[in-house]
TrEMBL record:
InterPro entries given in the database record: BphY/WalK/GraS-like, HATPase_C_sf, HATPase_dom, His_kinase_dom, HisK_dim/P_dom, HisK_dim/P_sf, Sig_transdc_His_kin-like_C
The keyword Phosphoprotein is annotated on this UniProt entry: yes
PROSITE patterns documented for this protein: HIS_KIN
The species this protein was found in: Acidovorax facilis
Cross-referenced CDD domains: HisKA
All copies of domain Histidine kinase, residue ranges: 42-264
One Pfam family named in its UniProt record: HATPase_c
Catalytic activity: ATP + protein L-histidine = ADP + protein N-phospho-L-histidine
An example molecular function term from Gene Ontology annotations: ATP binding
Coiled-coil annotated spans: 8-35
Keyword Glycoprotein tagged: no
EC number(s) given by UniProt: 2.7.13.3
Keyword annotations: ATP-binding, Coiled coil, Kinase, Nucleotide-binding, Phosphoprotein, Transferase
Name of this chain's protein: histidine kinase
Length: 264
């Protein structure tokens, strides 16, 4: 009887060791996530003050130059100085949008997760209503499937994800004569549900898809499309908080398809 008892004791000891190792690993992951959130919070908060100085003093410089006598104001050097202020203002506004993006990411990562059944069709309708200004004056064809699933989700965070996805589809179909955006259910493994948002816009180089959901990652020039590249990073953060996965495929000039796979 001693040998079996010893074997069982060894197995129990190994199991306890594995559980302790798993707990340490989970704690390390939690600590890293907390440190990342704290870093983003500090950066997004502490950059506000110097940014305000840049924007306010730029305005003051423009006012001072505007008070110069007309003959001096028309001089080449003063006009050159005024020309320098324009890109400075533009960069300051862009930095402000980047800080806003960081703060949104922090809020999405730290907000309490209040899960409840959310019919995706209704959430899509709300997101479209929030994007009415971006769609104004355009003849966008929407194809919203009637069999969209109900998700166990935080309604507020899900709404942020959908506004970003549909907003991107609207933005990148802007150059297309007949824009078409499709939202449909998709096949998913057992225990999951999936949906896709597909557009016929400009698409992107599939070789760069790996960086698409990174913070401040852009696949198009700023002169072509607005934004700072924080929207899809927010989508990934929201998806990860729900245990969901998000991916994208595209063809240059052939549109983009974003697939979201959600725990059922």
């Amino acid at each position: 009887m001693n040998a079996p008892d010893a074997s069982a004791g060894d197995e129990l000891q190994q199991l306890q060791g594995l559980r302790a190792e798993l707990a340490r690993s989970q704690q390390q992951v939690a600590d890293m996530a907390a440190a990342q959130e704290e870093f983003l919070r500090a950066v997004s908060h502490d950059l506000r003050a110097p940014l305000r100085h840049v924007t306010s003093y730029g305005t003051l410089v423009r006012e001072v130059l505007g008070d110069l006598p007309p003959e001096v104001l028309r001089g080449a050097e003063v006009q050159e100085a005024l020309g320098f202020l324009a890109p400075m203002d533009q960069s300051a506004r862009r930095m402000g949008l980047m800080i806003d993006g960081l703060q949104t990411l922090v809020r999405a990562s730290r907000a309490p997760l209040r899960l409840q059944p959310v019919p995706l069709g209704g959430a899509i309708a709300q997101a479209r209503a929030a994007l009415a200004a971006a769609e104004a004056g355009r003849g966008v064809e929407w194809r919203i499937a009637s069999d969209l699933p109900t998700l166990q989700a935080d309604p507020t965070l899900l709404q942020e994800l959908l506004v970003q996805l549909l907003g991107n589809a609207l933005k990148f179909t802007r150059p297309v004569a007949h824009a078409c955006i499709t939202v449909s259910a998709d096949a998913a493994p057992a225990g999951q549900v999936a949906f896709t948002v597909q557009d016929n816009g400009v698409g992107f180089d599939p070789a760069r898809a790996g960086s698409l959901f990174g913070v401040f990652q852009r696949l198009h020039r700023e002169t072509e499309f607005d934004g700072v590249g924080a929207g899809l990073a927010l989508c990934r953060a929201v998806a990860q908080r729900h245990g969901a996965q998000i991916s994208a495929t595209a063809v240059p000039g052939g549109g983009c398809t974003v697939r979201v796979c959600w725990p059922a």
